């Protein structure tokens, strides 16, 4: 069994797959429904605009597969734009429907706030639920963000970690077996890789023996 990285034409596939392999797990970049359904865990990456990404997901039919995976309890992680797509809607270049796996809306940072947009660089994570298994063995620290839009969750229990950028900003979300990270864990040093590793451990996937990692 492997970790399926969903290929719908709008993701940072190479960097995510290499990070999974560095952590000792098998990664398969795929748009094949059967491979995604039978994987131990699923990662939904994403770069670009919300509406365009959703168009590609729907056009490939993979929106349905991702939603089915979440409903079936298959561990799912959305990364950067992939996290935003988990929500009900997004306001980037108009109103667009998301996957609606998590209730909430993705909105732009307010231009009148004086903040630089996009939010780009290293910002500190603050754990909202310190005892969550995703944070096992970890301490709060800095991770790397690049985004102009951020998610506003409707349910406080879905919020696992925030960062501070003119106020609290959603950084990690989670509900049941569904997770999302607004930052790039594969580009976020030791803490980012440990967070990704904790998610992979939660999938139940078996790590490859030492010496067989790519």
From TrEMBL:
Its pathway, per UniProt, is: Amino-acid biosynthesis; L-histidine biosynthesis; L-histidine from 5-phospho-alpha-D-ribose 1-diphosphate: step 5/9
What is the annotated localization of this protein?
Cytoplasm
Catalytic activity as recorded in UniProt = L-glutamine + H2O = L-glutamate + NH4(+); 5-[(5-phospho-1-deoxy-D-ribulos-1-ylimino)methylamino]-1-(5-phospho-beta-D-ribosyl)imidazole-4-carboxamide + L-glutamine = D-erythro-1-(imidazol-4-yl)glycerol 3-phosphate + 5-amino-1-(5-phospho-beta-D-ribosyl)imidazole-4-carboxamide + L-glutamate + H(+)
Chain ranges of the Glutamine amidotransferase domain: 5-200
Q: Which UniProt keywords apply?
A: Amino-acid biosynthesis, Cytoplasm, Glutamine amidotransferase, Histidine biosynthesis, Hydrolase, Lyase
InterPro entries assigned: Class_I_gatase-like, GATASE, Imidazole-glycPsynth_HisH
Which Pfam families does the record associate with it?
A: GATase
Q: What does this protein do?
A: IGPS catalyzes the conversion of PRFAR and glutamine to IGP, AICAR and glutamate. The HisH subunit catalyzes the hydrolysis of glutamine to glutamate and ammonia as part of the synthesis of IGP and AICAR. The resulting ammonia molecule is channeled to the active site of HisF.
How is this protein named in the record? Answer: Imidazole glycerol phosphate synthase subunit HisH
Supply the source organism for this entry: Paenibacillus enshidis
Gene for this chain: hisH
